[in-house]
Amino acid sequence: MLEFRDIEIGEKAAFEQFARGYSNVEACFGNMYLWRKSWHIKIAFDEGALYVLMENGVYPSFMLPPFLKDTEADITAPVLRCEKYMRSVYDKPLRFKGVTVQIKQQIELQMADEFVFTEDRPNYEYVYKSEDLANLVGKKYSAKRNHINKLIMSHAFEYRAYTDEYYERCVALQESWIESKGGMNDDFSDELFVTKEALKNIDALGLKCGLLIVDGKMEAFSIGEQHGDNMAVIHIEKANPDLQGAFPLINREFVRNEWMDMEYVNREEDMGIEGMRRAKMSYNPIFLVEKFDCVRK
């Protein structure tokens, strides 16, 4: 039977051997490692697949569909191993979350009519062309340009790459942002932990962090990583909510300075939060990474 263990930072290379053929953020090692505590993430390997077990208190224990070392291989045996584990350990039916169209089609082809798929719209990922975010050309981006222009016409700004001296300032800015949203709660606490872990392990995880300095003060930061050959994933983005234009400016500058060698930028999901959905749609994604829940009939 599968033997799950806590995900460790030293397993990045092993994880990526299996996940490199998948574009969703669950296949992104940095994302999995940074959220390991709040989602109680555990992993297991066998010769052909990587398995991920998760639980966060909102959903019952579930698994991600297995990541195959050979994405063209038959997924049947790995799926059955997942099912055996869930039955033996939890006495629960198999439940997959994070099933992309790619994996859904594979399961439907190789295990015909055995599973039911349900759209998981809050976890769709928003993907943009990097050149669109960097240049903001055209009428559809006029509001973004206007916000940025108001800031840069009345303030001096510069972009800087993160160094350790900015650690406390990044944490303080996020804590200030949390206060502006009504104060600390479990979700904000989890996200603050993710930011701290990301900054402490920035090199080991292969992350990049960009800073926005306005009138000599750090007013925004963004953290992301390369995923696959042509995509960057943005994990965290925070800005002074009282400084109009800070969010679109750090978004633009981070892409311009760090990710122009990537074709796409993935800004992750909206979690079903209507304001976040509007904000992500306002940047005109080139496509959404659709996801499904999957349970046996």
Order of helices and strands: EHHEEEHEHEEHHEHHEEEHEHEE
Number of strands: 14
What's the pLDDT, averaged over the residues? Answer: 96
Q: How far is the first residue's CA from the last residue's CA?
A: 23 Å
Bin the helical content.
25-40%
**Rg, nearest Å:** 20 Å
CATH topology-level fold name of the largest domain:
Aminopeptidase
Question: So what's the CATH class of the largest domain?
Answer: Alpha Beta
Specify the overall morphology: globular
Major pleated sheet? 7 strands, mixed
Overall SS class: alpha+beta
| Total helical segments | 10
Which second-level CATH architecture of the largest domain applies?
Answer: 3-Layer(aba) Sandwich
Poorly predicted ranges (pLDDT <50, ≥5 residues)? Answer: none
Supply the number of structural domains: 2
- What is the assigned CATH homologous superfamily of the largest domain? Gcn5-related N-acetyltransferase (GNAT)
* Order of the strands making up the biggest sheet: 8-9-10-11-12-7-13
User: Strand fraction band?
Assistant: 25-35%
